[in-house]
Design brief:
Bound molecules: coproporphyrinogen III
Mean pLDDT: 97
Shape: globular
Radius of gyration: 19 Å
Low-confidence stretches: none
Strand order of the largest sheet: 1-4-5-6-7-8-9
Largest sheet: 7 strands, parallel
CATH architecture: Alpha-Beta Barrel
CATH class: Alpha Beta
Structural class: alpha/beta
Number of helices: 16
Oligomer: single chain
Order of helices and strands: HHHHEHEEHHHEHHHEHEHEHEHEH
């Protein structure tokens, strides 16, 4: 499908562009009234994720409503553990819960992985095909997966956690088993993302949402090698790696065979540039959008100036559900009004 707006892709590939492209992590969802209306009419989150026509519909909502430069396929990183054999529930107002978690070698051996596991996710590939058709080249569609460490953390912990100390304990007490599990997740994620590319996504983003709770040594040992394997296995589309909180590992992130590094708000553009030559994505504090419209405009403009090019404008993490929609619009419109030429 020929893209009418390919600004995201040109930027990700390092080309000189007229302005930064803009989209928001978690743009599909609870900030939009039309999402909440559709979601409220269904049995739950999973019905939305697993019904391709509905997933396509909510994927396109933010493109229609906010005129962002990219769509991101509506899904969740937790479809991977489910495909491998650990089903999840999305508990209202609480978040994900795995009734069964990984506790032993037997549990790891029992998981399916690689292409066999990825084949379980036909509903995602179908949703991508429908979305690409319906977008008709308006903007590129982003595909995504969780990084192996973040998926591992949910598989061991069974839910969200402030510390993920159960998952970290597993790394310290069972390093060999940890590698075994991380490798199975990696093989599945590679097959899954390759299938997403074959289904029509134009860029792939890897979310390592819990990278920041690792020490530099744990990150180097249990996170980085698997992200590297995935990035190296994706061909044909640009790859973004977003390792939230991994400011301590910028030099390692530079060594990944990927195009774009996502930054959270804890890393300044100036500091990041000292370690990384790739394109950046980010990194306005999502809470900045609670300020006045004028403040949002100034902060968005300053961010673009501070990165000074080779930059995809975004927040430093997903947009929070109670963010005023008008300020989301101010953020997007401000970026779109800017020009590197002037
Ligand atoms: O970005 C997008 O708009 C596309 C959709 C998307 C969702 N989840 C939909 C979703 C993406 C890219 C994700 C990724 C995801 N899921 C991550 C990595 C990104 C990050 O935020 O760090 C993680 C850690 C998860 C796991 C997850 N899913 C949690 C912890 C929760 C509950 C908390 C929350 O944010 O609501 C979810 C649920 C979820 N995933 C919702 C949405 C729209 C809310 C479900 C609802 O409608 O109630």
């Amino acid at each position: 499908m020929k893209l009418k707006n390919d600004l995201l892709i040109r930027t990700a590939l390092g080309e000189d562009v007229e302005r930064p492209p803009v989209w928001l992590m978690r743009q599909a969802g609870r900030i939009l009234p039309q999402y909440r209306a559709l979601r409220g009419s269904l049995s739950g989150f999973k019905e939305l994720v697993e019904t391709p026509a509905l997933a396509a519909e909510v994927t396109i909502q933010p493109v229609d409503e906010l005129d962002v430069d990219a769509a991101i396929i509506f899904s969740d990183i937790l479809v991977i553990p489910e495909a491998m054999g650990l089903t999840y529930e999305m508990v209202e107002k609480k978040g994900p819960l795995f009734p069964k978690t990984i506790e032993s070698e037997k549990d790891i051996v029992a998981l399916i992985s690689g292409a066999d596991a990825a084949a379980e996710l036909k509903y995602v590939y179908d949703a991508i095909q429908i979305t690409v058709k319906e977008l008709d080249g308006r903007v590129p569609l982003i595909g995504f997966a969780g990084a192996p460490w973040t998926i591992f953390a949910y598989m061991i912990e069974g839910s969200g956690s402030k510390t993920f100390s159960k998952a970290k304990r597993f790394l310290y007490q069972h390093p060999e088993l940890s590698h075994q599990l991380l490798q199975k997740i990696t093989a599945t994620t590679i097959a899954y993302l390759q299938q997403k590319v074959a289904s029509g996504v134009s860029l792939v983003q890897i979310f390592d949402s819990w990278a920041g709770i690792l020490t530099p040594t744990l990150f180097r040992t249990f996170a980085l090698p698997y992200i590297k394997q995935i990035a190296a296995a994706i061909t044909g589309v640009p790859v973004t790696v977003f390792a939230k909180g991994a400011w301590f590992a910028l030099a390692e992130l530079e060594s990944i065979d990927c195009n774009v590094i996502g930054l959270d708000w804890g890393t300044s553009p100036d500091y990041a540039r000292k370690h990384i030559t790739k394109v950046f994505q980010g990194n306005l504090d999502p809470c900045q959008l609670y300020g006045t419209a004028k403040e949002v405009e100034l902060a968005a403009t300053k961010m673009v100036q501070d990165f000074g090019g080779k930059h995809i404008a975004n927040l430093g993490h997903g947009v929070y559900p109670d963010t005023p929609l008008d300020n989301v619009r101010v953020f997007v419109d401000t970026i779109k009004s800017l020009s590197y030429a002037s």
